[in-house]
Please model this.
Amino acid sequence: GLKNNMEDILKSNEVDLKNLIDSENYTKAFYDRLKLTPERIEGMASGIEDIIELNDPIGEVLSMWKRPNGLQIGKTRVPLGVVGIIYEARPNVTVDATALTLKAGNAVILRGSSEAINSNKILVQVIKNSLQKTKVPADSVSLIEDTSRESAVELMKQKDYLDVLIPRGGRGLIQAVVQNSQVPVIETGEG
Model:
């Protein structure tokens, strides 16, 4: 998927890079985080292959014990359900988060930043096209294309549709999600 669509991915990323240069948010570090290269795309593809090779976590029994009355109690790994991920301008997160979420038997709703929207659109389209060749429904992956602040706030309110929300990025993003989300949040480290 990613390797076969490298040219289209790089073209979409170039649009994001040009838009960033023309914006007030431009810094060299920000540009570097956003920039995709053939090597970075190869790395994302290798990451997917590594995740595919991992043992299937779903159904794994972590522990089991029997109560004196004969009742068996155990811990078994199950999917979380629908996972929302809010993240900043790192297109690799689109791929990594999707692969990990699907491997664990979940559906994912991605909400990236405006700076990476063109890259994210093409990456999600490539992923969906690749999923059509598998038993995993392509609609297990969704991208919110509205990158306004309001769309992030709205995602944080979707407790009837999301089972968990994961912010991935800097301290400001993580704290905003932790403080404002009505959906349970898995707080990650910064960066």
User: Anything to note?
Assistant: The longest strand covers residues 61-66. The mean pLDDT is 94. Helices lie at 6-21, 28-34, 38-53, 91-103, 117-131, 149-156, 171-180. DSSP finds seven helices and six strands in the chain.
